[in-house]
Every structure is written in C-alpha cells, then in structure tokens.
Amino acid sequence: MLTLENLSKHFGGVHAVDGVSLTIHEGEIFGLIGPNGSGKSTTVNLITGLYAPTTGTVTLDGYDLTAMAQHERTAMGVARTFQNIRLFGNLTVAQNLWVAQNGHEQRRAHFLPRWFKAGGEHSPDIDELLKFSRLHSKRDLPASALSFGEMRRLEMARALASNPRVLLLDEPAAGASLEDGQLLAERIRDVRDRGVTVLLIEHMMELVMGISDRIAVLNFGRKIAEGSPAEVQANSDVRAAYLGSKHKDEELIHA
Amino acid sequence: MDYFFIIDFLQSLVDGLLFGTTYALIGIGFTLIFGVMRKLNLAYGAAALAGTYIGVAASLAFDAPPPLVFLLSALGSGVIGILVYYCCFRFTPTHYPMASLLASVGMLLFIDEVVIHASHGMPFPYPSVFRDATIELGDVWIRGDLLFVFGICVVAMAVLFWLLYRTPLGLATRAVSQQPRAAALCGIDPTRVNLLTFGIAGILGGIAGAMTAAAVGVISPIIAMGLTVKGLIAVVIGGLGSIPGAIIGGLLVGAAENVFLLLRGVTERDIYVMLLLFLFLTLRPGGLFGSSAGRD
Amino acid sequence: MDFYFGLAQIIGVHTLLGLSAYVVLLTGQVSMAQAGFYAIGAYTPGAMTAMFGLHILPAIVIAGLVSAGIACIVGFPALRVKGLMLVVATLAFGEMVRLFFFNLTWQVERNGELVGPNGAEGFRAIRYFPQNGWEVWHVTVFIWIVVAVVMAALWWMDRSRAGAVLRAVGHDEIAAQSIGLNLTAVKVGAMTAGGFIAGLGGGIYAHTVTHIEHGVFGVLLATFAIAYPILGGLGTVFGTLIAVLFIQGFLIEGLRFMGDWRSLLFGALIVLAMNLRPTGLLGEHAPRMKHLLGLRGRKTETLESKEAN
Question: Under an 8 A CB cutoff, do B281 and C81 touch?
C-alpha cells in the first residue's frame, strides 16, 4: 500500500537516509526501528513531505506522492504524530480535532458551510474520536492544559481526525513509562482495528516487538533487516548494530 | 547612449557603492542581533540616529573636533543599543516574537520623539571631512568625503571581523548564534553575549549614522527611517543572518538607489529600490547568502 | 458635540484598520502593509465618488475589493518568506504604495474644477458627504454600522472552522501542515480578508477628512495598525476595539494638552505594555472566567515553560 523506493535524503555530506526501499501492506502494524541517528525520523519527514527527498519515490496505492505538498499528502490519507508533541495549545481539545477534519467528506461540502459554520466542533465524529481517546471530559479545555499523556492521546486523535489511511507514529512512547507503553500498545491495535494502517517508529524495543506484524531496521540511513519480529531479533546484523554501537559508546567513554 | 550619460551613470554607481557601505553596516547590525537572538530590532535605526545626535551635542557644547564627534556618535549609539536590549528584549518572552517586535517599534517611536524634542526637529550641521578633495579617474570623480565614509566603514567591518573570528568574545557570539542551548550548556551566558552584541551592533549603527550625516553634511531626524528601511532591505537581499550577505546587499542598495536617482528622479527613486526587494523575495526568498527561505 | 462625533469617526476608522491587522496576526504573520492597503482603499473610492460621481456604498465596497485583490497578489510572493522577513517585505510594500501616491497625478475636470490626486499636494475635495447633505451624525452612524458589521463577521469567523484554522496556523505551522492545511491558502486568505477590511476603512477615512495625502499613510500608521490588536490581545476582536478606544480616545484626544509629547508617551506605553503583558489585554492565554473559578489546572504552567524552550 505505502511504498518507499530507493529513498535517500542527504544533508550536505551526511546521508541521513540512503536508498531505503519498503513496502507496507494494508491493515498491518509496521515497525521501523534503529539506533539513534539511524534516519527513522527523516524517513517519516520524507513520507509526509516535510523534506524533499534527494532521490527516490513515495507512493500510496500506486499514486506518486513524491511531488505533492504536505497538505495534499494528508488529503491522500497520510497522517502523522510528532516525537515532540505539537498541539495547537491556543485551541480547545475539540477544536484541535475540528481543524484537522479536512478529510475526504469535508472537502465535498460547499465552501461556506465548510469554513464558516459556527460550532462545528460539536459534531458526532468529534465526539466519537474524543470518546475513543478518553478525552471527552476535557473537550472544552485549552489543549495546553492537558497532562503529558493526554496530549499524546489528543495528538493521535487529531491525526485520526483527518481520516487517514496510514498513520505514522513518530516515537509515541518517548517520555512514557513501561506501563504506559502497554496501554499504548492496546491503543495502537485499536487504531489498526479502525482500518488504519500504522507505521510505528520507535526506540522502545518491547513495544515494537510486541505489536508489529513486520519490522524493518535502519542503521546509518540504510535498511539492514526486514521481517517478522522473531526474524529481526535473530538477525546478526541487527544485534551488531544495537550492541556494536553500545560497545563503541562504552569505548569512547572509557578512552 | 551618449558618452555623458555613461559618465553620469558610472559616477552615480561609484557614489552609490561608496555610500552603500553605511547601509552595509546597518545591515550587519541587524544580522548580528538576528544571529544571536533570532529577533528583529526595529529600534536599531533610531538608536543610530540618537547616537549621531549625541555627537552633534558634543560638537555644539564644546566644539569637539570631528574625530571626537564621530567617536561619541558611535559610543552613544552603542549605549542606546544596550538600553534598547533592556527595554525591549531582556524581559519579553522568547517564544512570543510579536512582543519584542512591537516593543522595539515602540522604542523606535520613543527615541525618534526624544530626538525631535531635544533638537526641536531642526536639522543640524554635521562635520564633514575631505569635502573638497576629489580623486579623478578620467571623467569619473571620486568624492573625498564619500571615500572617507567608505574607508571608515571598511575599517569598522575589519575590526568587527577581527572581533568575531579572532577573540574569545567573537567565539562566544558565534557559538550562541549557531547553537544557543549548547552554548549555554558550555557555560556561555547568553544574556551577556546578547548584551555585548547589542552594544557592538549599536556602535556599528552609530558609525553608519555618523557617516551618513558626514556624507550629507547635515543631520535631521528623517535619516532614521531611511537607515532602517534601507538597512533591512540590504539584509533581506543578502540573506538574514549572513554578514557577507549584508555587505553585498548594502552595496547593492546604495548603488541601485543612486542609479535610480539618476534615471527616475528623487521622488520615484525609492519605489524602484523597494521593487528590487520584491524581485529578490520572489526569485530568491532566502537572499543571496541565506541558507534557506524564511527561517525565523 | 461635533467634536465627539469627529472622535467617534476616527475611532471607528482606526478600529477597521486594527481589525485588518488582527486577521493577519491570527496566522502569526506581522504585516506592516496594512497602511498601504488603507491608502489604496482611501484613494480608490475617493477617485470614484469625487471624480466619477459614484454612490458611497459601491465606492467603499469596490475600495475593499481592490485592496483585497492587491493584498492577495502581494501575499503570494511576500508569504513565501515568513516571520521577520515578512515584516521587512510588508514594510517595504507599504512604503512603495505611499511613494506611488506621492508620485501619482491624475486629475479630471468636474463641475468646472480639477479634482483627483495631485502628487505631493494630495487628493483634495472628496466632498461626497457634504455634497449629498449628510450631516456629521449620519456619517458617524454609517461608520459604526460598518464597524459593527465587520466586527460581527470576525466574531462569527472566530467561532467557525476558519477562525480555528487561522489560529492553528498561527500557533504551529508544521503541525498545521501535517493535518492537511494549505499554509499558503490560509495565509493569503487572511491577507486578502485583511486587505478588504483595510480598504473599507481607508475608503471611509478619505470621505470623512475630504483631503488625503501620502504622508498620512506612512510607517507610523502601519505601526498603529499592528499595535491595536497586539496591545488589545489576539483572544477576541474586542481587544482591538478597546485598544483603539484607549489610544485614540484617551492617549491622543484626552491628553491633547500634552501636545507633541503624546507620541513619546505612545512609544513608551508600547514598550511598557509588551514587558508587562506581552500577549496583550485580552490575549489567547489570558485567564478567562472559567479558569479564574479554579478549573485551570496546574498543567498549564508546565506547557508554558515547555513552550519557552
């Protein structure tokens, strides 16, 4: 469904992403892991269009997204969350979802009601999403008044409000405890059960290994392994990448 | 295209390039402040003007010789620059750029009004040096006073480069402008660096103001607006945050201004300078030396 | 009595100017071009009523549309840059418009006299109101009806998705793009709406003063335009109105005995206000009733300190 072909991004001499090819199937949870600086976040930014790739293409269901602007990709069904949460703190919780409702149904509405109908944040769609995210009681609070965990949930709900086909979660467990991680795993499965394909970029191995259907591993911008969690765990290159880099760090510290 | 037109054209170009160094200095000042704070200080031109008036006050009060007038202008503007930092930037929130921007506009009005009240809005004579000396290159003359302006501005830039690239202070300034948080972790106090930057930028502005007044021979409050707008245009053309860009931009603005003065007359001159800016914004939004469009 | 009507007219016109900047500020863009759009709005209907005898209503609507059109055209190149570069670009645009009118001479003969913009002399005799028997209170009521309509429209917009979208873009452009908002469309839209409102204000201004000249539309007016909404706060349209009432009603008129010192006071007031209350009087982060009653959690502070980083 979502296909990356020979995708590269070079920042000057740094090859942040170097010839990565991936295919993500409809309805799966796909994990993308790798040590720090391996190019995971850059890959997300290439898929959503925040960066233009140096080479390669991104396609969704055969449609080439590479030349599209970010908002056009969202309209095609790509949504994301951010590693460092980016909510609209000046809007209420419900309004945060409302502005994101730019998806397919809304586009068919006429210009005036779509933009200038007041009070649209009380629609059933938004209520449903708020209940799904357990934020219903906070709907009229400013988003800036939420707790950290609530902000994460709101950001995921906002991404879902744009009615995506594929949701990119950029380190959703960053800053969360192990316990929260288990709740998060359930939430990600719930999202998948709504019919949204999930691309999960994560650091926390337990989370990714537990819920992903397939996993790809990046190191220094290159894909070094791909397969089921068990296959990836058994791969010697992956072990070397994770353990090897740790050894190097230790050497540096002791040197 | 007759011969005299070409001579006039070259003459305008030379005068403009020489005078353009003052815009370059103002542009460098904007860029320095932007570099360390990621903020625009719109009171900068007004501070330069006020500093220049301090020089005038000295020359009126005890008949100070021109070099002392220039020096006092520069130092006065530096002090006012630091004052602007405390009034507009030190205590306004960093994540809400509108606050410091509007505060600096308020400061611009305030300084401007103080100068107008203190001087009763009257233009004052300003010492001009080498007024009668000229160097003749064929039919193109290089005016001595403009050459002096050019020389002083170049010296100021050279001193600035020495400060930035050869002293610990410059190292700290460059560190803060590239990685503010990392610099703070290394024990560099950003407030002190900001303060020094405002002071240095203020001195550069004072020199630019003094040299503008010296080139014309009089000083009036009107020059603040010209300095501000032209300096900003120089920065945009060169790329916000780039010192070489500000220099090239300043020279370009000076040259363009004088050439359009010749071609279209004094009332229409600035329209074309602004059009030049729009051309750059459309074709090269990051400026000549800017890394990317619209980083802020 | 006429004095108070005159003051009410000034306040009304400046409210329109402030609201035009308010719309653009919601998207996080500081536009110093509002005085330019105001000038375009002043010269256009002035020309239409005085030179070609059009009725006032279509004249000011056309003024709004012309300003909106120019704002839209300028918006595209200008909004390719953002933040501080935009301040410079719009400042330059405003000056360009002013200088254009400084150089514009285009007069036609009407009823035996020459009317039309005449360069540095300005544009005299825009006498639609006296010629058609409008009394000063008619004009004042007319102005405030326009102001009320514009404020109601903006207040409504704030409760619609359009308003939320403007604020979303103003808060975080990257997040706004990620949820499918077209930044260029939103910003140019806001700029166009701002241009329209400034054009209306300028059109009315030209008819109340009967004589306009380029000097009025300088950087000082552009500063006023952005100062009203920033001082008043971007939380609601009423902030702008309160700021205009305070600055024009109290600072400029109430302190008339202070003469030229008022400009100095105005500058000092802005500096002081931005240090003490950077988000303005009725800012987005200003405590509202609900929060004062104790519903505002401690969590707010954690976010504010997070934003500061």
Answer: yes
β-strand pairing of A214-219 with A29-33: parallel
Residue closest to B173 by CA, chosen among B182, B186, B181, B183:
B183
Closest partner CB to A70 (pick from C162, C165, C177): C177
Q: Which pLDDT does position C309 carry in this prediction?
A: 35
CA distances from A233 to A165, A228, A229, A238, C144 (A): 29, 9, 6, 7, 72
Q: Cβ of A91 and C177 within 8 Å? A: no
Q: Residue A151, SS3?
A: helix
Tell me the pLDDT tens digit for each residue of C223-276: 899 999 999 988 889 999 999 999 998 888 888 888 778 888 888 999 999 888
Q: Are A56 and C139 in contact (CB under 8 A)?
A: no
Element (H, E) at A197: strand A197-201
Report how far residue C68's alpha carbon sits from residue C217's, in angstroms, rounded to the nearest whole number.
17
Give the pLDDT mean for A193-214.
88
Q: Which residue from C77, C99, C120 is facing B271, i.e. has the nearest CB? A: C99
Q: What integer best gives the mean pLDDT of chain C?
A: 85
Residue B28's pLDDT band (cuts 50, 70, 90): very high
Tell me, yes or no, whether chains C and B touch by having 3 or more C-beta pairs under 8 A.
yes
Query: Rounded to whole angstroms, how far apart are CA atoms B131 and A214?
Result: 80
Query: Are the Cβ atoms of C270 and B105 closer than 8 angstroms?
Result: yes
Delimit the domains of chain A by residue range. 2-77+164-254, 91-163
- The overall pTM is greater than 0.90: no
CATH 1.10.3470 fits C2-308, yes or no: yes
Verify whether the Cβ–Cβ distance A98 to C164 is below 8 Å. yes
Residue A128 CA from chain centroid, whole number: 21
Give the residue from chain C lying closest to A158, CA to CA: C179
Q: What number is the average pLDDT over the span A2-15? A: 89
pLDDT at B293: 37
Cβ of residue C266 closer than 8 Å to a chain B Cβ:
yes
What one-character-per-residue DSSP string does B211-230 give? Answer: HHHHHHSEE-TTHHHHHHHH
> What phi-psi label fits residue A251: left (phi over 0), alpha (psi between -120 and 50 degrees) or beta?
alpha
C-beta pairs of A61-70 under 8 Å, 24+ apart in sequence: A61/A1, A61/A165, A69/C182, A70/C177, A70/C178, A70/C180
Each residue's pLDDT tens digit, B208-230: 999 988 888 888 888 888 888 88
Given a contact as 3+ CB pairs under 8 Å, which chains touch A?
C
How many separate domains does chain B show?
1
Please, where are the H alpha helices in chain A? 40-48, 70-76, 93-100, 104-108, 111-116, 124-132, 148-161, 178-193, 205-211, 229-234, 236-239, 245-254
Residue to mutate among A41, A82, A99, with most C CBs inside 10 A, is A99
Q: Place C301 in a pLDDT band, splitting at 50, 70 and 90.
A: very low
**Residue C148 predicted with pLDDT over 90:** yes
Q: Any CB–CB contact under 8 A between A37 and chain C?
A: no
Chain A residues whose CB is inside 8 A of the C164 CB are 91, 95, 98-99, 121
Domains of chain C by residue range:
2-308
Nearest Cα residue to B170 out of B196, B208, B204: B196
- The CA distance from A59 to B147, in Å, is 61
Q: Give per-residue pLDDT as tens, C105-138.
A: 888 877 777 788 888 888 887 888 888 888 888 9
Residue B186 lies in a domain: yes
Measure CB to CB from residue C271 to each of B103, B113, B117 and give the nearest one.
Answer: B103
C62-106 per-position pLDDT tens digit: 999 999 999 999 888 777 776 777 888 888 889 889 989 998 888
pLDDT attached to residue C289: 40
Query: Across the interface, which of C89, C219, C274 has its CB nearest the CB of B106?
Result: C274
Fold of A2-77+164-254: Rossmann fold (3.40.50)
